[in-house]
Amino acid sequence: MRARFLAAQAPHSGDWLLALPVANCGLRLDDEAVRVAVGTRLGLSLCVPHNCHCGTLVDAQGLYAMVCKKAPGKIARHHVFNDIIWRAFDAAGIPAVKEPSGLDRQDRKRPHGLTLIPWRGGRSLVWDVTVVSPLAAFYVDREATDAGTVSNMAATRKTEKYSKYSTLSSAYQFEPIAVESLGVFSSTALNFISELGRRICVHTDVRETSYLFQRISIMLQRFNSVLLHDTLLVDLPDL
Q1: What is the mean pLDDT of the chain?
Q2: Residue 238 lies in a domain
Q3: Which of 39, 75, 108, 143 has CB 3.0 to 4.6 Å from 3, enough for a Cys bridge?
Q4: Cα separation of the two ends of the chain
Q5: What is the domain extent for residue 145?
Q6: Domain for residue 28, yes or no?
Q7: How many structural domains comprise the chain?
Q8: Is residue 239, in this structure, part of any structural domain at all?
C-alpha cells in the first residue's frame, strides 16, 4: 500500500486524471479502464481471484496481470508507447525512425528508435522504451522506500546493456525511456520527456509538454485494463 501511496504523489503519475477525454486525441478512457485505473491507484479489488491462462493465480487486486510474461497486451503496449515517442519527435520537427535497420545490437535486437538528425552534442539519439511494474513481488519492497526506484533501476539496466555495444555508445546518444505501470517516470525519462515537450512547444501549443505526459499516462492506464482482461480469457469447451 505504501508503494501505491508514494506513486500517487510522484510527478505526472496522475496526469490521466487531468486529461480532457477527447477520443480523437487518444485521451479518452472507457468506463472499464477508468474502473481499473482507480482501483489500481487505491489498491481496491478488481476481480474475483482466478487462474491466469498461464496457470498462475491472480489475486483480487489483479497484481499478477501486470507481470505475466505471456500477456499479449504487453507487446501492444510496447508498440503504442514507442509510437507516442516517435510521433512526439515528428511534432518537434525532428525526423526519426522506429527500429532502424543497420543498428542491430550484438544480441540481434534493434533499438526502438533513432533520430535522423542530431539531438544534442552533434549526435543522433537512440532510444529504448520500457514499462515495469513496481507492484511485482520482486520490486514492491524497494518501491515502498521511494517512488521511481523501480523505473530508475530499469533505466540503469538499459543504459548498462547499451554501453556494451561500443559502436552504438560512441556514435549515438542513448536515452532509456523507463516508466512504471503506475505512471512514475525514471528521473532520466522525466527530464527527456520534458525536453522533448519543450521542443514541441516551439512549433505548436505551449501546453504540449503537459499533453505529452497525459498521452503516456492515458496509455499506461488503458493497458493496465487490457492486461487485467488478458488474464480473464478462458478456453471455451469444444463443441
Answers
A1: 87
A2: no
A3: 143
A4: 45
A5: 2-230
A6: yes
A7: 1
A8: no
Q: Each residue of 115-168: pLDDT tens digit? A: 999 999 899 999 999 999 887 776 666 655 677 788 999 999 988 887 776 567
The model's pLDDT over 164-205, given as tens digits with 9 standing for 90+, comes to 765 676 788 999 999 999 899 999 999 999 999 999 999 888
Residues with Cβ < 8 Å from 57, sequence gap 6 or more? 49, 50, 51, 64
235 within a domain of the structure (yes/no): no
Sheet strands side by side (includes 173-180)? 96-98, 113-115, 125-132, 173-180
Distance of CA 79 to the CA centre of its chain: 10
